[in-house]
Amino acid sequence: MHFVCSDSWLEGLLADDCPGLDLTVELLGIGAAQGIMRFAPKGDCVISGVEQAELLLRKCGLSVSRTAANGQKIQAGQPCLTAKGSAAALHRGWKLAQTLMEYMSGIATRSAQMVEQARTVNPGVRVAVTRKNFPGAKAVCLEAAMDGGAIVHRQNLSDSILIFDQHRAFLPATPQASLRSIAAMMEQLHARAPEHKISAEVDSLEQAILVAEAGIDIVQCEKFACELLAETVGSLRAIRDDIIILAAGGINGENAAHFAATGVDVLVTSWPFFGKPADIKVIMEKIPTDPQ
User: Fold this and answer.
1) Strand stretches in 34-76, DSSP E
2) How confident is the model at residue 173 (pLDDT cuts 50, 70, 90)?
3) How far apart are CA 120 and CA 7, in angstroms?
4) Of 23, 203, 290, 292, most Cβ neighbours within 10 A?
């Protein structure tokens, strides 16, 4: 588990899902009965969220045994988590643990698919996920993507410098002219943020060359066709061999290999966040009481 999973976050999830009585358990009068609950995916996947689910179930007062770790490839039907305890505690943690694993495993599996495809043609390329994840769920989305082998492009606005068209709209002159202003300011920008690399999004070969010649550290090529991207990579490498080149916009599990083959350093994507969750099967059974 890469991100800290705080007690307050876990307790908040449980309080939101069961703020008072579990009315169904109370109505049936089954809360004190002892049982066992087993989790296993219905299909092959990269499991994620299983470590968080373990912590959730322990918060419910259950005895938990985990047989898989976040980021592990597991087969359909392979058990990954088992919990024992009262029916009240089992039902309190059941759906939260299941849903968390399903969403996170879906993201992790898609991330692994992209990483595998991209590295078949470019072993050194990295797949980086953006901050365009579901609001309020950043930590679990990023954790899941990392479990699938991706890295984090940006956690937030405070961890990196990336100049977009939307920033240049507020600078003097037209956006195109303001890009030249940024190029002229590059030495000053580096002096103001000596511990950070400066990156900018570009949408043409000419823009990429302009900022590369000005000394920018990272060029993010937005929505370039693969042919143009390959040409841009060649041109930028001829200018400076230390520049880092990113491809962004429309990159997914179907075309990752094509973009990776252009020679870029990083594929920037939000694709793993949006898709079908994994399907985690849960079996719950009562533990027979000893008649003696």
Assistant:
1) 34-41, 45-46, 63-66, 73-74
2) confident
3) 40
4) 203
> Which alpha helices (H) appear in 22-135, and where do they start and end?
23-28, 50-59, 87-121
In CATH, what class is 113-273? alpha beta
CB atoms within 10 A of CB 86: 18
Tell me the backbone φ, ψ of residue 129, rounded to 5 degrees: -95, 145
Is the per-residue pLDDT at 37 higher than 70?
yes
Hey, what CATH class is 7-105+276-286 in? alpha beta
**Helix (H, G, I), strand (E, B), or coil: what is residue 199?**
strand
Residue listed under structure tokens 């003696």 = 292
Across the range 196-220, mean pLDDT stands at 96
Q: Is the whole-model pTM more than 0.85?
A: yes
What residue ranges do the domains of the chain occupy?
7-105+276-286, 113-273
The stretch 139-149 carries a mean pLDDT of 97
106: burial class by Cβ within 10 Å (0-12, 13-18, 19+)?
buried
Candidates 279, 275, 277; CA nearest to 41 is 279
Helix or strand holding residue 154 (H, E): none
Beta bridge partners, 223, equal none
